[in-house]
Write a structure and sequence with these properties.
This protein is mainly α. Helices cover 79% and strands 0% of the residues. The relative contact order is 0.19.
Length: 158
């Protein structure tokens, strides 16, 4: 009887991973995949010459709207690509708030780190001059980097 139970459990695990594609628990692998996704998307924007012109011209309202849009888009991605795949009977154990918080803070902080790192690696931070201008560029690059972090982590498995 033990072998039948083991086969049934193995079949359930295979069905979850291959057919139903239920999101796993958030761990360091997710963080690493998100980091590389953020770098990939960040590279495409950091190397554009228009970034400095547009980024330095951003107003406080533009920065606020860009940050808000980032959080809204990340929330939509996390819900519709990730949490939507959690079976209804498991949602009582895996609340959206917990599912969301771990991912959104990780993705956003990774995107800020990647944006800051890319600006300094390519010497763009020195061109910006003041810390306020560097902040504007970090916010401008963190928008696509955050989207890239979430997309690579959430869609990479599904």
């Amino acid at each position: 009887m033990a072998k039948i139970d083991q086969i049934a459990e193995d079949t359930r695990v295979l069905r979850e991973r291959l057919v139903e594609k239920i999101p796993g628990h958030f761990d360091i692998k997710h963080v690493i995949v998100a980091f590389f996704g953020a770098i990939f998307f960040g590279f495409t924007f950091v190397l554009k010459g228009l970034l400095i012109e547009v980024g330095l011209a951003l107003s406080s309202m533009d920065l606020f709207l860009m940050s808000s849009a980032t959080w809204i888009i990340l929330t939509a991605e996390i819900y519709f690509v990730g949490y939507d795949r959690v079976p209804l009977n498991q949602r009582k154990l895996r609340h959206f708030g917990q599912f969301w918080a771990k991912r959104i803070f990780t993705y956003y902080f990774i995107s800020l780190f990647v944006a800051f790192m890319l600006l300094y690696l390519y010497g763009i931070a020195e061109l910006a001059g003041t810390p306020g201008n560097v902040f504007k560029l970090v916010v401008a690059i963190s928008f696509p980097a955050a989207i890239g972090a979430a997309v690579s982590d959430l869609l990479g498995k599904y």
